[in-house]
Amino acid sequence: MAVLGNPDMLTRKIKLCHINAHITCRLCEGYLIDATTVTECLHTFCRSCLVKYLEENNTCPTCRIVIHQSHPLQYIGHDRTMQDIVYKLVPGLQEAEIKKQREFYQKLGMEVPGDIKGDLCNMKTHLDQRNGDAKSEDPTNKDAGEEKPEEDNDYHRSDEQVSICLECNSSKLRGLKRKWIRCSAQATVLHLKKFIAKKLNLTSFNELDILCNEEILGKDHTLKFVVVTRWRFKKSPLLLHYRPKMDLL
Asked: Which CATH class, in words, describes the domain spanning 14-87?
């Protein structure tokens, strides 16, 4: 009870260096960016570091447990909670990472994805509120506030989009009438399976395989993950094929 009643103990500060081992990537030794966790052992790394490592390995870099004999990339997942913790603990890290991503796309002459624009906008709003600027009576701010309801009608304004072409590569299924679609980068392969199954009136979406570059994709892969790992530096749209499961034609 004496410890609980001591206000100094409740407000005790911990140095960042004392917890660095828990919020850094073992592969690059930097702070976690796009934190990704191995589902088998729950060890976490930067997504880009882990994906590159698993191109030639199938074990966890930390404990060496076998993730999967042939498809280890299907057994890793984005750890949003861990990434939020890292961004809260390390001052300026999120802002610096967002700016790096924006500069990267601008250097390549590509449009900055919507999610990065949204993060930049949220970051600016947060800084303005912290500095008291959000309460300013500047007419410019007032005009911007009046336009906000109209912007809110676009539900994906801050969500990165992916253009996809869905082609059938089996004589056992018919092609889609509208094979060109555009959807959120956070949608998964499972969402596409359900979409195709509904359009083709299939009894179950589990009857389908979706492939990219002739490789079967895991159902939990997000479209952003597919683009980064299977379609990097290739022109849009992302070309995906579908076929009945176990159909080798």
From this structure: alpha beta
At 24, is the secondary structure helix, strand, or coil? strand
d(CA 98, CA 15): 25
Q: How many CB atoms lie within 10 A of CB 206?
A: 13
Do the beta carbons of residue 227 and residue 238 sit within 8 Å?
yes
Q: The dihedral of CA 182, 156, 204, 201: what is its sign?
A: negative
Please say whether the beta carbons of 31 and 93 come within 8 A.
Answer: yes
Q: Give the pLDDT of residue 142.
A: 47
Domain boundaries of the chain, sorted by first residue: 14-87, 159-242
Average pLDDT over residues 129-146: 50
The single-letter DSSP state of residue 59 is: B
pLDDT digits (tens, 9 = 90+) for 78-113: 888 999 999 999 989 988 888 888 888 888 887 766
Reading phi first (left if > 0) and then psi (alpha if -120 to 50, else beta), residue 169 is in: alpha
Residue 211 pairs with which residues in a beta bridge? Answer: 216, 241
CATH of domain 159-242: 3.10.20.90
Burial class (CB in 10 A: 0-12, 13-18, 19+), 33: buried
* Helix runs in 19-131, H state only: 20-23, 47-54, 80-89, 93-107, 114-131
